[in-house]
Amino acid sequence: VQLQASGGGLVQDGDSLRLSCAASGLTFSSYAMAWFRQAPEKEREFVASINRNGFRKNYPDAMKGRFSVSRDNSKNTVYLQMNDLRPEDSAVYFCAAKFNGGNYIYSPDSMNYWGKGTQVTVSS
Fold this sequence. Notes:
Layout: E1 2-6, E2 9-12, E3 17-24, E4 31-38, E5 45-50, E6 57-58, E7 67-72, E8 77-82, E9 91-99, E10 113-114, E11 118-123
């Protein structure tokens, strides 16, 4: 199984980014997908989840209204649209897969597979 995240970069306060995560080696539509992030010296933090058919999503309060998760099961890809980025959003962003999961608020140790992450840096 491989989860390849991409789309990170260096942006300015208030900018937008769209992350992608391409999955292979698994039946993508059987997995809920989630995004997490981890800043230096901080714990890995849940960012968003989407259920297997893409109809249900979940976000922590801090991300609601700014972040949007979506998926295209025909392309085995999940996306994270991030708007109005702030310096505190700077982190490595990871995608993860949960077999037979839903749009829950996941803890990192509940996920089955992880990608390697993509760096997002927001300058002030």
